[in-house]
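Q: Predict the assembly, please.
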Amino acid sequence: MKDIKPRSACPLSYGLDFIGDKWSLLIIRDMALNNKSTYGEFLNSEEQIATNILADRLGMLEAYGFVTKQVAADKKSKFLYRLTEKGISLVPVIIEIGLWGSVYNPPGLNTQLLSALQQDKEGTIRRIQENLRRHE
Amino acid sequence: MKDIKPRSACPLSYGLDFIGDKWSLLIIRDMALNNKSTYGEFLNSEEQIATNILADRLGMLEAYGFVTKQVAADKKSKFLYRLTEKGISLVPVIIEIGLWGSVYNPPGLNTQLLSALQQDKEGTIRRIQENLRRHE
DNA sequence: AATTTCACTTGCGAATTGCAAGTGAACAAA
DNA sequence: TTTGTTCACTTGCAATTCGCAAGTGAAATT
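A: Predicted assembly structure:
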């Protein structure tokens, strides 16, 4: 994996050095909100990521500790990707971009989740993160 | 400006279609948090964006209504970029990425702002946004 | 033994990025 | 009035990244 060199000390810039692209956060979304965990499941997402890009991003996310990779219990050729605490801590980021998108793009966010976030943003985010920590 | 076509109905994906790159949010950061407003000021930022990329991103941000462009009062060859409401509503996004970065990258965020956010995140974000609306 | 599933890898053209130099209008100084 | 400077870009080109399509290889299934 080619290494990422921070462009500045700014924490926003630092974050963008890792997740400043069109795909990384979608993979994390799939793990955080859609209960997906395998290469095949990520490939099936609506946005149609290319196979090489997916492999590249999963490699980056693993190399930098956003996710872990383990062999599946049922099949030795299948791998399960799970968010680490570092990955879980990006949940507020994907939620805020999603909330922005649900305002500026009519069709939208899972209605259930959207209304939960509107009722109690902090609590909803916390509950999502706690669920992920139970790696459920 | 080449047009952006949404990859899916997902609001996160929709947001990333616009701001899913390494530069757009840094420009918005400069306007939202660093009180910058001109091409020259954006160029001087620590991350050293290339002139053509900056011009391209400013064009995109203007074309899609994140910022407005007006001639400066003092010089006719100088332009002032200002965040619109659509741009201001990205403040929570840059704050969340910044908070993430300040945890996973030691040197960091403006200490003043960081501690304000730790004390009262919602209030601090709201105050930043209100200040921007007064286009101060 | 043959096929299918799963997770990738490879090759290659197209698009994007990034460096360096150039352009042109407005204003300032000589 | 010419000359230089500031400001905001544009242009050309090499290098990197993206994205499509096809291929590979190990493991499981038929």
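The longest strand of chain B covers residues 67-71. The interface with chain A takes residues 6-17, 19-23, 25-26, 29, 45-48, 86, 89-90, 92-94, 96-105, 107-109 of chain B (CB under 8 Å).
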